[in-house]
Design brief:
The structure is a homodimer.
Chain A: H1 3-6, H2 15-24, E1 26-30, E2 35-37, E3 46-51, E4 53-59, E5 65-72, E6 76-77, E7 93-96, E8 100-105, H3 107-114, H4 118-144, H5 147-162, E9 166-167, H6 171-178, H7 182-194, E10 198-201, E11 204-207, H8 210-218
Helix pairs in contact in A: 5-8, 6-7
């Protein structure tokens, strides 16, 4: 059993609690692109990522998307189990951005632990505060930063996650991450190309001057 | 001592814990307009509102504001004590919108309780989830709703809070709430006036057809 190495407060649980988690846990594999959680009514359980990458986003009625944050190896996804906290009243969609292996802790198991264990309750607090902080950061980006800076920041973040300066991503996908439109993103990327920051080719964006992009972000 | 009637989990604390809170509690009166909390380094403590009204907002470097949410009688403000949760890494400014009486629970007292009491830890979870939900709602408004709907929704909310259809509020103040500019708000309000929704006069906005405003919000 590897789970215990990934669950940061494992050693703060007693044996009965550890057994209860181990007995209810399942390991699930999901392919890239799979929507794991959509409706807030669907209280699937907490997800702990073993390998891979998830994306949390919100969706407008017309189908526009904005990426709220990403989850990586060892990250825990709380919002797929929104029923465990009564006041959590918003809908977030969770999608696998890469092939992903994750453990599912059933909501009832986790909720019962939260109601008897101070470490579990406070760990949940920290998780929520951490996602809240990411959403607040994004809110500030949207409110105060112009789109050129947001696109530049997105390209740099993407290059850092993928560990390459050759991004395979469509303009449509970037628009979805940023809550914008494809045409707007294409125009911006062409401007970046003219400025010598990127080189565009079919389905690919190459970062040829990350320094200029960073200057733009911080400018 | 009235505090115990306002603090919803009072009866779930033991006598030692109750005494610890009562012994460290202070009642504070702040005038309308007072900024109670600004810097995240300033960990003043948790605020429980006895009477009055607070506003939580974020501030850009150029001084533009966006209201995140309001707190009323019996509401607890968590973000004036951000040091109690390590992962809470964002800055929110808290201002008294009316003359306000509030109890301050020192951060150390509350943090110590969170670390020993499951009810306190889970109550904190609920508080955070509830603020998080309000911010997510706002985020959706900003991303998906056009400004005309946001202004209409703001006027209706304000009329409901103040229990009057005669709002004493400047265009500048509305712009601050919505993260917009005064000129933009003035233009929008003139449009509303032409449509017969409001009547504008010096420092006042009268809602003369709330039904039309509601239609606009929901449209």
């Amino acid at each position: 059993m590897e789970f215990q190495e990934y669950f940061p407060i494992w050693n703060q649980l007693n044996t009965v609690q550890q057994n209860r988690i181990q007995g209810s846990l399942t390991l699930r594999r999901v392919g890239r692109g799979t929507v794991i959680h959509h409706d807030s009514g669907d209280c699937a359980g907490l997800l702990l990522i073993r390998t891979g990458q998830l994306r949390a986003y919100i969706l407008s009625e017309e189908g526009r998307e904005v990426t709220l944050y990403r989850l990586f190896e060892r990250d825990m996804c709380l919002f797929s189990a929104s029923c465990i906290i009564r006041s959590m009243q918003f809908e977030v969609t969770i999608q696998a951005e890469k092939d992903t292996e994750l453990w599912v802790i059933p909501s009832e198991t986790y909720k019962a632990l939260m109601e008897e264990s101070v470490p579990v309750a406070n760990y949940t607090n920290e998780l929520m505060a951490s996602r809240f902080s990411e959403v607040m950061w994004l809110m500030e980006q949207i409110m105060w930063k112009s789109l050129d800076r947001r696109v530049a920041a997105f390209l740099l973040e993407e290059a850092s996650i993928e560990e390459t300066s050759q991004l395979k991503i469509t303009h449509e996908a970037i628009a979805n991450h940023l809550g914008s439109h494809r045409e707007v993103i294409t125009r911006m990327l062409r401007y970046f190309q003219n400025e010598g920051m990127v080189k565009l080719s079919r389905g690919k964006i190459e970062l040829i001057n990350a320094g200029l992009l960073k200057d733009l972000c911080e400018g």
